[in-house]
Write a structure and sequence with these properties.
The structure is a single chain. This protein is an all-alpha fold. It contains eleven helices and no strands. About 75% of the residues lie in helices and about 0% in strands.
Length: about 220
Amino acid sequence: MSKPRSQPKRERILDVAEELFALHGYDGVTLRQIAKGAGVDVALASYHFGKKLDLFNAVFERRAELLNSARLDALRACQQSADSQGPSVEQIIEAFLRPLELAQETGDPGWQHYLALIAYINNSPYWGPRMMSKLFDQLVSEFIAALRKALPDARDEDLYWCYHNLSGALTLTLAQTGRIDKLSGGKCLSADFEAAYNHMIPFVAAGFRQVCGKSASR
């Protein structure tokens, strides 16, 4: 669990906290455990971040801007390359999901921990409304607007329910519970993000079209 001492202490604290929060949740981790894993005194962790809640927020915010930028860049790219009708539902959903796959496959274990932490927070009735909206609602609104153009007959409530289902499927994928590994007898692996998104994109797109109006299909 301890991080290389050559790494700046502040970053070591964030990395260890990210891993422990992802594995055990907020209540299952103490500031002392984080400090021990980072090889620093508790006083130094408190000096850099204050209380455990402040550190929890700092961990959650650290990678959010990078992730949001990558997803918006992907959305802008598919919008610019599309015709006057705009990108298809599949292209929009792919822009939403593929940057997550790329982050997960960087070889940086921090991204795996961070995305698992997103799953934990998004699935929590306590943390979800307190933390997800601040960092991700603007991004989601951009994608909803793109989907509204791709599905012009859709009612707003249908778009949001479909997004809700997409978010649920994504949360389970990010959590990497290993459930699908056991159910499939090893034919499917929760760590196979490429396969996960290859299946999720057409599945979710079909759901959007079915719920939001087949007449919008292109």
